[in-house]
Amino acid sequence: MNEMLLELLRTHATDGWEVTDVETEGWEFYFIGHKLDQSRTRSTRHTTVCVYKKSEDGACLGKAGGEIAPTATRGEAEEMIQKLLFQASLVKNPYYELVQPAEAAAPAPDGEIPSPAEIAADFLAVMRNLPETETEDINSYEIFANNKKRHFMNSEGVDVSSSYPSSMIEVVVNARKDGEEIELYRNYTSGSCGAKELAESLSRTLAMGRDRLLARPTPVSGKLPVVFSTDAAVALYRYFISRLSTGMIYQQISDWTAGKDVMEGALGDRFTVRSARDLPNSSANAAFDGEGAPIRDETFLKDGVVRANFGPRQFSWYLGQRDTFLPGNFVVSGGTKSAAELREGTCLEAVEFSDFQVDPVTGDIAGELRLGYLRENGACRIVSGGSVSGNMREALKEMRASGEARQYDCYSIPAVTRIEGLTVTGAV
């Protein structure tokens, strides 16, 4: 940590401060097809500062933050701190306390962390062994294999560090048929590589590229059961997660407080949401959150009933919840069906959207369909175009999921989810 910066903060920001220093060591590779176009190693450092300013009567606490370059001179750093203090003085939030040393107990030691070179080698091995064909293949890909070291300190005496991998691969898949060609783009974030899951996902993407060229316009269908079996399903479960946040509750957007049965009267599955300190290959396996509070395993929703909330220090303090934190990883479970059962009968399995969103405030579901499998009368048609819409508040009444899980970076969710009665608008 920059001692000069800490000295300035201790001198000027007497009402409170936080410093987060992140050092990243990374390897990058850029391929066209499977031919290396360029590569590089990099080392970066980013230091962000938050300062706090009390009102004269001590009833309010303002906050302002910004980044200070590691190369900043003493004069430049002091000027930035003074600017942030002025900005903080204009903010009149009710007072709350920062994380204390007793709350930020020493985290468990970090496990063995693979080097960027090892992570990159695993990514390269996956890409070399994909089941490409003459009509479906890899157009290009970029690999970013990183190790991060995060050091957090605040004016209360919290001083914690954690190291973890955080990587990404971007892939463009091409598919061709009868002179027509399309591209599918994929972006995977992870801790290390997660070779098995990545290979399965990219193999499925190659097959989806083939199917896109066979697809016919989605017919006008009205209300239909819709099955989600790809990463779009994460947005469905983020709705649960967002409504458990103390920020949403304090702003009276959510009423998901302890003891509430949020699935009362539901005919489908009853879900459980918990945080996980560690998930295999997650990019969020940090020991502490952005405010210095230790991250732990905790259940927030159990079989549809709220047990606890999580959230930022400010809003949790206002609600009288002094032992909260901001999780990095979430695990959602509670599905009771098999994937095959969820695909039975008439339904649309929506596997590719140009955009898919679930509004955390209203619960509105909206997605533009690019690829789906319409099952009816024992037949399956490949379709494209149109849209899927509905509302999560209604969806919760009859939402079912598989017992089998699938992980998307820092989210582990049911592998297959089925929602009854969504509106499917056709492309014709």
Notes on the structure:
The chain has 2 domains: 208 residues, PmbA/TldD fold; 214 residues, no CATH class. Helix content is 20%, strand content 40%. The chain has 9 helices and 21 strands. The strands form 3 sheets. Strands 1, 2, 3, 4, 5, 6 and 7 form a 7-stranded antiparallel sheet that branches. A 6-stranded mixed sheet has the order 12-11-10-13-20-19, with helices on one face. Strand 6 and strand 7 form a beta hairpin. The chain is globular. The N and C termini lie far apart (61 Å).
Summary, kept brief:
By secondary structure, this protein is an alpha+beta fold. The protein has helices at 3-12, 74-89, 116-128, 195-212, 233-243, 246-250, 313-318, 339-342, 392-395; strands at residues 17-32, 35-54, 61-68, 136-154, 159-165, 167-177, 180-190, 216-217, 222-228, 272-275, 298-302, 305-306, 330-333, 347-358, 364-376, 379-384, 387-391, 399-401, 405-408, 411-414, 417-425. A hairpin with a 4-residue loop joins strand 4 and strand 5.
